[in-house]
Write a structure and sequence with these properties.
Blueprint: E1 2-7, E2 10-13, E3 18-26, E4 33-39, E5 46-52, E6 58-60, E7 68-73, E8 78-83, E9 92-98, E10 102-103, E11 107-112
Parallel strand pairs: 2-11
Antiparallel strand pairs: 1-3, 3-8, 4-5, 4-9, 5-6, 7-8, 9-10, 9-11
Length: 113
């Protein structure tokens, strides 16, 4: 089992920045991929960004390319999401996911216009 705990959400004005973190615990040696997803009110959960634990390769949703950066710290078993130039449409609950299987409880990000 893997446990994931997100932190760093909050309220920010459009154009501002936030940094989300996700701490993994449990059987972390099995984690090969960590992803961020988000779910806005009335919408389906969508992929935001992801990173492979070993190779470090990343990929992003088109809507966040150039604004968001995903990174990992394997020693601390954390994955971070630096979000810059935030837009109101980025407002959502952001979730951390490990191996397409385990989910965190989510952290709220609200961007005001």
């Amino acid at each position: 089992q893997v446990q994931l705990v997100e932190s760093g959400g909050g309220l920010v004005q459009a154009g501002g920045s936030l940094r989300l973190s996700c701490a993994a615990s449990g059987r972390t040696f099995n984690i090969y991929r960590l992803d961020w997803y988000r779910q806005a009110p009335g919408k389906e959960r969508e992929f935001v960004a992801g990173i492979r634990s070993t190779a470090g390769s990343t990929d992003y949703a088109d809507s966040v390319k150039g604004r968001f950066t995903v990174s990992r710290d394997n020693a601390k078993n954390t994955v971070n999401l630096q979000m810059n130039n935030l837009k109101p449409e980025d407002t959502a609950i952001y979730y951390c996911n490990a191996n397409y299987d385990y989910w965190g409880q989510g952290t709220q990000v609200t961007v005001s216009s």
